[in-house]
Recover the amino acids of this structure.
Protein backbone atom coordinates (compact mmCIF):
# COMPACT_ATOMS: atom_id res chain seq x y z
CA UNK A 1 0.00 0.00 0.00
CA UNK A 2 1.17 3.52 -0.85
CA UNK A 3 -0.49 6.64 0.64
CA UNK A 4 1.49 9.42 -1.08
CA UNK A 5 -1.34 10.57 -3.38
CA UNK A 6 -4.47 8.89 -2.03
CA UNK A 7 -4.52 5.20 -1.18
CA UNK A 8 -2.92 2.83 -3.66
CA UNK A 9 -3.20 -0.93 -3.36
CA UNK A 10 -0.47 -2.85 -5.13
CA UNK A 11 -0.98 -6.35 -6.54
CA UNK A 12 1.36 -8.66 -8.47
CA UNK A 13 -0.17 -7.77 -11.83
CA UNK A 14 -2.20 -4.64 -11.03
CA UNK A 15 -2.75 -1.59 -8.85
CA UNK A 16 -5.75 0.52 -7.83
CA UNK A 17 -5.61 4.12 -6.57
CA UNK A 18 -8.40 5.80 -4.58
CA UNK A 19 -7.99 9.58 -4.66
CA UNK A 20 -10.24 12.38 -3.46
CA UNK A 21 -10.65 15.24 -5.92
CA UNK A 22 -9.39 18.60 -4.68
CA UNK A 23 -11.80 20.53 -6.91
CA UNK A 24 -14.96 18.41 -6.85
CA UNK A 25 -16.82 16.42 -4.16
CA UNK A 26 -15.91 13.06 -5.76
CA UNK A 27 -13.53 10.17 -5.25
CA UNK A 28 -11.59 9.04 -8.29
CA UNK A 29 -10.54 5.45 -8.89
CA UNK A 30 -7.61 4.61 -11.15
CA UNK A 31 -6.78 1.02 -12.10
CA UNK A 32 -3.94 -0.47 -14.13
CA UNK A 33 -3.48 -4.19 -14.81
CA UNK A 34 -2.05 -6.66 -17.27
CA UNK A 35 -5.43 -7.40 -18.89
CA UNK A 36 -8.72 -5.65 -19.55
CA UNK A 37 -10.58 -8.40 -17.68
CA UNK A 38 -8.49 -7.82 -14.55
CA UNK A 39 -9.02 -4.04 -14.77
CA UNK A 40 -12.76 -4.58 -15.03
CA UNK A 41 -12.86 -6.97 -12.04
CA UNK A 42 -10.78 -4.67 -9.81
CA UNK A 43 -12.77 -1.59 -10.82
CA UNK A 44 -16.05 -3.36 -10.02
CA UNK A 45 -14.83 -4.20 -6.50
CA UNK A 46 -13.36 -0.73 -5.99
CA UNK A 47 -16.62 0.98 -6.93
CA UNK A 48 -18.49 -1.21 -4.43
CA UNK A 49 -16.12 -0.07 -1.69
CA UNK A 50 -16.57 3.63 -2.51
CA UNK A 51 -20.37 3.40 -2.85
CA UNK A 52 -21.15 1.83 0.53
Amino acid sequence: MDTLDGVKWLYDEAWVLFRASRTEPVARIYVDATSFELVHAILKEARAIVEW
In short: Residues 36-51 form the longest helix (16 residues).
